[in-house]
Each structure stands twice: as C-alpha cells, then as structure tokens.
Amino acid sequence: MEAVNADIINKAAVGTVIARNNLTYYDDNRGTYNSKVCAICDCLIRYDDEDKISLVAVLKKEKMRLLFNKNNVKWDKNVPKKVKLKLKQYYTCNAFDKSDVSYSWLKEYMLSPRTFKVKSGRSEAIGSCRCCCQQVRRSSRSDVSPTPLPPFSISNGLMIGKAPETLEKLNEVERALISRGRINKHIFSFEAGSHKSIKRWHTMFYNDVDAVLGVSNWAQKIETENICNRNDKYKEEEEEEEEEEEEEEDNVAIQMKRTIPDICVILTGPFTPMQKAKVMAKTKINYSNVKNALLWLVITFVGSFLSINISIF
Description:
Number of strands: 8
Largest sheet: 3 strands, antiparallel
C-alpha cells in the first residue's frame, strides 16, 4: 500500500479540477458551474469531446446564416403555429450580453440557450461537440455544395423545447426519485460551515422508479393519518399526546427505513441555521409534485416510463 503524501494529494486535486473544467464551465453572472452543452445539437458534451465554433470566421458567414436561420427551419406540417413560435423563442443563444448590439445577429439563429462562450484566438466562439463542429466547419466552406445541416442539429428538426413546469419545479432529490438514468442509490452530501458557502456532492446509484409511486402514495397516506390523529388528540392531556406522537414517529421512521428506496441526504460539518434551512428546502420531497411529474412522463409517452402502470395513479 502506497503512503499518501503531498504529491499524491496535489495530483488528485489537479486531476479533479481538469475533469471539472472538461465537463463544466463557470458562469460569472450566476457564480455557478454549469454543464457544457453543444450550441448546435443542444446535447451535453461528453468528456474530452469539446470543440468550438468561431462566431466571425464561421457562423457569421452568409451560408451559415441561411442554414441556421429560424425562418428556414423545415417544420412538420402538423406543428401548430404557437409551438413554432415558442420553440423559436426558446432556441436563442444566451451566452453573450443581450444588450451588446454586436451579438444581436445571433437572435436569428436556432442555437441552444444552454451553450457557453469560449475564446478562439482574439475572437469569440461558442462551445460545441466535435461532431457538430466538424460538420459546421465543412458546411461553411465555399467549395461545399449543397450545404448539409449537422444530422443531430436543432435546425434539422431535432428539438424538444423547454421542460414543462411539472418537471422544472422538482428539486434534485425529487428528480432522483423519478430518474431512469442512474446506476444505483443516490447520496447527496452537503458540506458547510460558519465561514464558507454550501458545497455539495451527488453520488448516483441504482434507483427503483417503479416503486417510487407506491412509496409516494404510502407517504401521503401516512401524512394524512398523522394530521387526523393530531386533530383527534388535541383534546387529550399534553403529556399523553407527546408520548403517543413520539411513539408514532418512531413507528413511521421504522416503516420508512424498511420501505423507502435509499436516497440519502448527509450534512457534514457545522451548519449555521440559515445554511441548514437552505439545504432542507432544496432536498425536501413534495410527493404530489413527484406523482404529477411521473404522470406527465407516462401520458406523454416518454421512453421507458411507458412501463409504469398508470392505473395506480
């Protein structure tokens, strides 16, 4: 076994920073790290698959303006006008200052609103995956005709739009409950202190989505029964009421330990009351929201969610 020394710790720290910067970028306005998303296909950029497209040298060319112009998208005949308008408004690049008129031409392009800006020499560029970047650069050449769209680009009709409010209002723990794309259990670990901001790690493990709805129904039933029981006990003596509630809470805790799938939220280190309140607000589960989100995923025929039995709603 090799002893841990300062050099090993330093290499691990450097490797972590490299990995973080490979998959995320720092938003100066919000002060947060966000996932890197391709401007052309609106997909998350895989590890070590990042490239960039120059605004002036490539995108501002007339060929590119015609290729990615919002008015030139070939819509399916069944798409309503309201949906077209909403999609055009949503797919607008937000990586640059909207008040700067030098970037106003980008509003005409069908680009991901989640993409990011990078430097390309002395000029500006937008981030993209290598596949889309290679196709865009090839299409921008004057000797290439006809000009093909990247196969998975937004302008090629592969657009989803903004997520519905039913899904957007879920916090990260609630999203973990309904998520299919995990490997095993979920562990949300928060670290804080009196002189530092809250930091969080999320470890992803297996998640039994099929059992989530049953657990949600059970938890809501327990919650309703608890409220009814408390109302009935208001007439009793205070000491007897406290003893019964403590016993009931112990029983609920035991039942939850046996029934609810493992989703853990761990608070590490000293938390100020305000920091603890913020973490609790971020991780509190609203079972009604979880059920509504699952119902939306089922009735809109989203992938593997079709296997969920809708009759139990």
